[in-house]
Amino acid sequence: MTTLYIAGDSTAARKKAAHAPQAGWGMALPFFLHQDLGVRNHAVDGRSSRSFVDEDRLAGILEAVRPDDVVLVQFGHNDQKTEDPTRHTEPWTTYQGFLRRYVEGARAHGARPVLLTSVERRAFDPEGNAVPTHGEYPAAMRALAQDEDVPLLDIQALSLALWGKLGTEETKRYFHWTATTRDDIHFNPPGAIAVARLVAAGLLSEGVLAPGDVRRLGEEIPESWITWPAAAPS
């Protein structure tokens, strides 16, 4: 059985019950994949391409992968944190350098790396246009994917277009907006499902997965399908 491993940050991570209704897109990805495909979500809140490696989380994935498995890599949100040297990377140097470690590590174990640009935050200009927030990081990942001949899912561009189509008010339902919380980074179930749909469709269009591997792309997914464990994985 082919397994998809997710290396990423809080936008993809599995949330525990105390954080509901916040949800990462990795929690919804299995809804769009054939049941014979496994998903191992190693994404963790607050991690960057650097800190995920430094904490040996990439090493843990590489110990588990088998030939023909898929390693999905999405970082950028926390790489931007210039005030934190344990997480910060520079787009065209250290960021690309760390991403190469994921690509080379996966390939060394016979697995297939896939790079995903960071999903966009909920940000709009005064005219109501969705605006990008990740600076040079998406461009740096696109360039690396071309140089290394790695499949790229441009989730930053796709999500930016989606948030723009939904608009300032409707996107509040997709992000972690509640009676007490206004969070323009993390998702509620509709957002997690929407981004997971983009990921599954991208895996199909890029030839990473075959048509029979993907399902429900045109179907409505009930929010109730997302569940929260009592405790998040370590």
TrEMBL record:
Q: Spell out the coiled coil positions from the record.
A: none
Domain SGNH hydrolase-type esterase: from-to ranges:
8-191
Record flagged with keyword Transcription regulation: no
Q: Which UniProt keywords apply?
A: Hydrolase
The family line of this record is: Belongs to the 'GDSL' lipolytic enzyme family.
Protein's name in the database: Rhamnogalacturonan acetylesterase
The answer to whether the entry has keyword Hydrolase is yes
UniProt xrefs under Pfam families: Lipase_GDSL_2 (PF13472)
